Please model this.
Amino acid sequence: MTISANGVRTRPASADVAALTDRLRADFGDRVVTSQAVREQHGHGEGMADAALPDVVVFPQDNDEVAAIVRLCDAARIPVIAFGVGTSLEGHVAALYGGVCIDLSQMNRVLEVNADDLDCRVQAGVTREQLNAELKGTGLFFPIDPGANATLGGMASTRASGTNAVRYGTMRENVLGLTVVTPEGRIVRTGGRARKSSAGYDLTRLYVGAEGTLGVITELQLRLYGIPEAISAAVCQFPDLKSAVDTVIVAAQLGIPVARIELLDEAQMDACIRYSKLEGFAVRPTLFFEFHGTDVSVREQAATIQSLAADHGGSAFQWASAPEDRSKLWKARHNAYYATLALAPGKQAFATDACVPISRLTDCVMQTRADVAATGLVAPIVGHVGDGNFHLTILFDPADVDERAKAEELARRVSLRAIAMGGTCTGEHGIGVHKLDALVAEHGDAIALMQTIKRALDPHNIMNPGKTVPLPGNP
Amino acid sequence: MTISANGVRTRPASADVAALTDRLRADFGDRVVTSQAVREQHGHGEGMADAALPDVVVFPQDNDEVAAIVRLCDAARIPVIAFGVGTSLEGHVAALYGGVCIDLSQMNRVLEVNADDLDCRVQAGVTREQLNAELKGTGLFFPIDPGANATLGGMASTRASGTNAVRYGTMRENVLGLTVVTPEGRIVRTGGRARKSSAGYDLTRLYVGAEGTLGVITELQLRLYGIPEAISAAVCQFPDLKSAVDTVIVAAQLGIPVARIELLDEAQMDACIRYSKLEGFAVRPTLFFEFHGTDVSVREQAATIQSLAADHGGSAFQWASAPEDRSKLWKARHNAYYATLALAPGKQAFATDACVPISRLTDCVMQTRADVAATGLVAPIVGHVGDGNFHLTILFDPADVDERAKAEELARRVSLRAIAMGGTCTGEHGIGVHKLDALVAEHGDAIALMQTIKRALDPHNIMNPGKTVPLPGNP
Model:
């Protein structure tokens, strides 16, 4: 037996795993893989490289196959970890107690596009870039863009957002419904296709952000949007970080519906200029904007922002209105993480994810920058500042125990600072294994409700054990 | 003992209720009321008048008092029903098994307004009109407007929305966090003040729409919005219902950010013209629009809509740009329910609440209208059609058993029709006692997950028993 009475996890017995693997092979043939290379690939995401290998990786192709795998795991009390493309940043896919990794990459079909209703249904393994490629010609797009080409199932599971959230919201607002395989292996549909509903408990929102700890998301009904008539991007550089952040705060307070507002501090701008060969920019705190709307409204938004920026010492806008110029700009932004890694070959990096009420953003960013300076670590700032969210990308030498500890301590302080300011330790990356303490600091007594829900829906603690919600008795 | 082992409810023993009432009186004095008149007032909402009286009504003034009441009820296994101002439409406050009604009307303070962050914190008994009155002078407003001057706690509990939802979303999108008293009487805060968060399970969204069955909402952190620079309202009349609905569908598909789009069919328009003494309008299918934005964007939105309407045979817009003209228009819209009641003195009315994917709206409305005609009942159509939501207000004679049955049967068909079209039986009113069957038809296997959550969080089934989620063994 692998679990104590209250669902606290230990690693399953090898004999149980071997028996399950044989049984899976009988049903799934060579879609069951136990090679070291594949297990290693599935044992970690991006960010802090704390690999923990699953015992076996299975590649199902439909809901029924996922349900069949989960039922076998449930019967044997063996952990189940859902895996998309492995871009998560908080150790969500590490198989802390071994078990079965369900790789959803073969569930990659766009099942329906309802252009008239601005919605679609996809399998969980579809990536956001794939979806937008398949939407070409419909005049529609899916706006949530966390940078990485993540799967939509993974994005729902971590309640992802990214650069477009100011205008379009996060996965929370853009998932209409889900198909979920429960811990007992039942296939359940939540939500629906209506834009709003008051019918019963909001199971969709419960599974969005549950990080695979309550079941496996296998399909998603998503909202889509018409591609705006006009899109323009602009870059504005500032004499100092405070002026850039203050510009964002005023824009947010005025409710200007900018699609994206991204901040890069000097260090991040330096890294991006080198890595992405950006030309014509200074190594200075910088805001990237993108405006969506009609021609008239885009011009109006841009004029308002330009005037606000000028009030704060911002440079004249450098425009990127042609699609290829915009692509280059956003690609540089999306590659900020890799640009930072390239600053110090051999080092690793992980990201913090503070999100605060907008009025506290300048304080939070400036205090964090001073904190970074005091540590002597390299940690550029980049962020979706339009909704109060910013990241440090902290570089550290994995072989240097002290430096790693210092980096982790810095990250912990960033989380606690955001919480103290009425914000959250994670705007969009999730809790995973690294932020369980921060979750407790943030949510206090509400943790008990989360534990009750976890225990009720997953009584044997087989679903991504050790993540998202601390369970007493588990490490 | 009042409950069987699995939490199925029966009415508590009179001696237990008497003992609890004595105990409450000791703590709350004359804020404990058992008079018939007050119990009757608290035994029903609006809509179908199925009164079921609580044994006692208590008026707490803060979180601690609510928690103390709930702890006493929990110890005695006596039902707890939260009550705002009694405007719910699905029997949410009927005390099916007696028990203690917690009237939150004395918890009516706006606790903080953070103008810079566009948020506020209120006690659950604050009404939406009170909040907007207290926001005067800040340049901010709270947009969710279900018509009735409901409490914000009640609006969260039913996941309310109303006329502004197309642009601003529903209570789901506009509650940042809650204070909840759990069934054991613990005070828990969910969510926070950050615009987005991936920290743990989304308890806020679980309590929004839970209709008091998982705990009592005592405080809310709400999003606010800047009052738009420009607001204009316009009325457009159509030759037939289909043309009006088709206009809405195209507007929604184009993603035009109209703040409100309301449909009134001939019957509803007739009732409103008489009741609210509207002048200059014909008895015809009519759309009421409201546009929010900058001067430029309001003009642009209006021009686009006017052109769409003209394509569908719509009249020239009749404008209401002055605040007093807009108020008169929206007051007439909000009084549609009372206008309908005034058509047939002595009759009662209740509302259906279908919400469908926008492409099915014309089919759903036209089939429903034909269905109404076949029954011979009077049931005008009114709706927040911009997001696919519309209501029948069905009149019936409460003394006429056959007519009431016919009315209920019509309502049931409306729910099932919406569900068959991929929509929901309730866009904004909730399940209460009247739509438990429809919930099962809509959500099938997902009901088991809702039941598991209910049983886990409220194991003694004391929280608003008999509502929202069917529990086997309960009627």
Summary: The longest strand of chain B covers residues 216-223. Chain B is about 35% helix and 20% strand. Residues 401-420 of chain B form the longest helix (20 residues).
